């Protein structure tokens, strides 16, 4: 996979969940607390920085994993993943590791950005929209395929094959995989739905019909204009009535499916740090949680960038 120095954006929740399930829970701190997600994420960052030598690096966070504006539009959004109240269902041994991850990132000086009322995806979308140069997005979430843009370039490094064998997703890949224009993934996902996020989609419209509609009209917006104008040409057999019945859903779903491009990002330095921002705090964290090995590996990589 070719290097594309520029801005590297981490979908941090996606990565620490992957680390949690990929690294044995028997990896513990001296006091017995599991730190498998912490250690796994640190090693992931080291691998990514070594392989891609970014100039800038941002660990994007979920300040709100189920934003009110998305729930207001579609109440079922991620509803099946709610534990109690508004809290996300997170494994008992992962939840205590998240604050440790945040402290480690801060001590290292790696930009850690979450925006109240927005998900990590929205932070990623906004950084991508503002970037002047190349952007690479590391995630296990296909929703972010909507951001690929060969002209800038912006590509997704998809973790489906593992962090050491990332799948580079560009417009050509999206077209080849889904049969849609390269930048149309959000429109396609809106039509077909996504049960993992509680998005119903249009009943009776599956992958093939969704792809045919988006390819024919070019965008969801253009398809809806044709639908509202009473056009019949270009709609696969039986699909037009299904779309008419789902018109209320289609009016609000794009605001849920499309990542924000205008989240109010804080002003923070995003350059890859050559040395820790707070060495004393980092030493204390390494001692308390038994992180000497992975932190030393990461620090060595950071000095080389």
UniProtKB/TrEMBL annotation:
> Mind telling me which Pfam families this protein's record contains?
5_3_exonuc, 5_3_exonuc_N
Q: Which organism is it from?
A: Sphaerisporangium melleum
Recorded hits in SUPFAM superfamilies, A to Z, give: 5' to 3' exonuclease, C-terminal subdomain, PIN domain-like
Protein's job: 5'-3' exonuclease acting preferentially on double-stranded DNA.
**Record carries keyword Transcription:** no
Q: Which residues form the 5'-3' exonuclease domain?
A: 4-273
Q: Which Gene3D superfamilies match?
A: 5' to 3' exonuclease, C-terminal subdomain (1.10.150.20), 5'-nuclease (3.40.50.1010)
Kindly provide the name given to this protein in its UniProt entry. 5'-3' exonuclease
Tell me yes or no: is Cytoplasm among this UniProt entry's keywords.
no
Molecular function terms from GO: 5'-3' exonuclease activity; 5'-flap endonuclease activity; DNA binding
